[in-house]
Design brief:
single chain, paralog of FGE (formylglycine-generating enzyme), globular, 4 helices, 5-stranded antiparallel beta sheet, alpha+beta
Length: 241
Amino acid sequence: MKKILMVAVIATAMFATLNANGQEIEMVFVKGGTFMMGSNDGDSDEKPVHSVTLSDFYIGKYEVTQAQWKAVMGNNPSYFKGDNLPVEQVSWDDVQEFIKRLNAMTGKNYRLPTEAEWEFAARGGNSSNGYTYSGSNSIGSVAWYDGNSGSETHTVGTKQANELGIYDMTGNVWEWCSDWYDSYSGDSQTNPQGANSGSYRVGRGGGWGDGASSCRVAGRYYTSPVNRYYYRGFRLACSSK
């Protein structure tokens, strides 16, 4: 059957129907701004705290689901099966192939968020209330983590959203970012893209098997871009039009 594609922009969200089955990827608009990235209260790689200025962008309201992955890739690599569960067991390289195919299908320019975009959105952007986790200081209200997950993923969007209406940026699955992992600079930066090269890619947000300390909005994780784990997925981003 020929795939049917539609793209529509509604208010501050963008929707892309991937195929005739009606799979949509909903994007939330994030107004650009300046924030202090990192933390003095966590691991050493979260320091130094530094000023980052970002342009407008869009980021996924939810983690990419297994149904969305199947609509583009025709398979489901996930360990925990369910159309509305986040896709997992996908490497950074796998995600690049997904994005390549999705962009060919939709004519759009989806990508992974940069680490700075991810943290700004997780903190609530310009509407941030300064929470430890994405949307609350109480992790259980916003996240599936080792204290409540039952050692498995859960349907996206079933916990409380953050200040921007984005779900699961804390917990459920770790999320790939576009950057190579590197130490922070203390210098002020504008739209940082991360290191030019490296051995590891960045992951953010914590997952269903992690404790609260690993799920803070400033927390960082890194691994080889070829690794696949059942606690790591992703969400999409794209530049403002």
